[in-house]
Amino acid sequence: MCGRYFIDDEMWREIRKICKQIDDAKLKVTVGDVRPTDMAMVLTGMKNVHLEAMRWGFTSKYQDWLLINARAESILSKPAFRNSVRNCRCVIPAAGFYEWNKEKEKISFTMPQSDILYMAGVWQPTEKESQFTIITTVPNSSVSSVHDRMPLVLTPEEIQPWIQDWSTAERLLTKTPPLLEQRQEFEQLSIFDMQ
């Protein structure tokens, strides 16, 4: 499961280079952690790939809870995602994502030699706003010691085909993600936290 990811200044600068026309007032991007129910930026567009602000998590008539992840292996058979995976795919750019190990230690995962990690996702329009969810898959060796799922990570060359070409997207659902770097995150405790 991917339940939190992060954006940093370097990643945001790189995204600004890729997407020339960014309406900062519309996106309201904040650097830091992104959690379920937060508004976040995603790449989408059937003609031209562009950034759009969407809320993280699907509401669904099929589930009573928020759907923040969709399994690549079963996404085509799930009523909540079936239409979106065929018609409304997106990519979620991040500097990296977090998982917690069995000892409840926070581990960050990033793309080696890159400021941006691209996660495959799907989105849906609602009356109020558009919503997205992150697609997860079986973890590769860089993540499996920490968690039994990981985001479906795409290369920069796979972004446009994932969003715009169904036959390529269907094939990418079964890909093994690239190896990631992992780092244990330490949180600063104040003296008041220790009492």
Any descriptors?
195 residues; eight-stranded mixed sheet; hypothetical protein yedk fold; 15 strands; 17% helix; single chain; 5 helices; alpha+beta; globular
Describe this protein's structure.
The chain is built from five helices and 15 strands. With 195 residues, the protein is α+β, with helices and mostly antiparallel strands. The chain has one domain (5-184): hypothetical protein yedk fold, CATH 3.90.1680. The strands form three sheets. Strands 3, 4, 7, 8, 11, 12, 13 and 14 form an eight-stranded mixed β-sheet that branches. A five-stranded antiparallel β-sheet has the order 2-1-9-10-15. β11 and β12 (130-137) form a beta hairpin. The longest helix has 10 residues, at 9-18.
Q: Which helices and strands appear, and what pairs or packs with what?
A:
Elements: E1 5-7, H1 9-18, H2 24-27, E2 32-34, E3 39-44, E4 50-56, E5 58-60, E6 63-67, E7 69-71, H3 82-87, E8 89-94, E9 96-100, E10 106-110, E11 117-125, E12 130-137, E13 150-151, E14 153-154, H4 159-164, H5 166-172, E15 181-184
Parallel strand pairs: 4-12, 7-12
Antiparallel strand pairs: 1-2, 1-9, 3-4, 5-6, 8-11, 9-10, 10-15, 11-12, 11-14, 12-13
